[in-house]
Design brief:
With 265 residues, this protein is an all-alpha fold. The protein has one domain. The protein is built from 10 helices and no strands.
């Protein structure tokens, strides 16, 4: 008896690539989260815990929210986009370090490691966003922004920025492996100056002018402008998008150089 025709048909290049991508994503999730749904849940819940800690600190100190009457909303609108950006930019770099031996298999390329971790982080960030929105609803806060389209665009901008900086990080560690620690320290500076815990526009103009060059601050204000349209927050949308796309372009070029270096070595 002859087998059905489909049994003899080989997988198409696209099917093979999607299979490799799927396997890399599953491996990322299992190795990072201990092959446990609870482990993955901890990572998803971390941004929520982060926001709750900020709210608790301000509540105990009896400090009002810098903008509006809702502490939870103020901190969530600032922390979520900044954390999305930082998680993607950091975890993409860590993925390449942890999974580089997989590139010895002909089916796996360095770009596949990068792309698979980006997808994992986007999904994780989206789940965390849903959890935070649910917590806000439980606290009696309406998480729907005044301008939903602006908020969605700001969230996408944070993802683009994370991909761009993460791609450059991948290239840097190809030449300087110690950059993993260096970027961790640099991320602290970015976070502190991004306006998560304060409103940057209330600072003196000379200080605020230089802080605006921090793209993480821009995405934070981008999201807040969707929730506080009367606050007069000015966002340089073109700067954020061009910064992210330029980083992606430069990063991919440098990653190609790193791949050539690995193949030569």
């Amino acid at each position: 008896m002859s087998l059905p025709p489909q049994a003899h048909s080989p997988k198409s290049p696209l099917e093979s690539y999607l299979h490799v991508l799927h396997a890399l994503m599953l491996r990322d999730m299992r190795t990072r989260f201990g092959a446990s749904l609870w482990g993955y849940g901890v990572v998803v819940l971390w941004p929520c815990v982060h926001v709750i800690m900020l709210i608790t600190i301000y509540t105990f100190q009896k400090l009002p929210a810098p903008l509006g009457d809702d502490r939870a909303m103020f901190f969530a609108t600032g922390a979520v986009p900044v954390l999305v950006f930082q998680y993607i930019s950091r975890e993409v770099m860590k993925s390449v370090i942890m999974n580089r031996p997989l590139t010895y298999y002909p089916q796996v390329k360095l770009f596949d490691l990068l792309f698979s971790r980006i997808l994992v982080e986007i999904v994780t960030g989206f789940l965390a966003l849903i959890v935070i929105a649910s917590v806000l609803v439980a606290m009696g806060t309406n998480p729907v922004p005044t301008y939903p389209f602006t908020a969605v665009c700001g969230y996408i901008a944070a993802i683009i920025l994370g991909i761009g900086v993460g791609t450059i990080n991948v290239a840097i560690i190809g030449f300087f492996p110690g950059w993993l620690l260096g970027y961790a320290l640099f991320s602290i500076i970015l976070y502190v100056s991004s306006g998560v815990m304060f409103l940057p526009s209330y600072l003196p103009d000379k200080i605020y002018y230089w802080m605006k060059y921090n793209p993480a601050l821009q995405v934070s204000e981008w999201i807040r402008s969707a929730y506080y349209p009367t606050a007069g927050i000015q966002v340089d949308y073109l700067y954020v998008i061009m910064f992210g796309l330029t980083c992606i372009t430069i990063g991919l070029f440098l990653v190609k150089t790193v791949v050539s270096k690995m193949q030569a070595g």
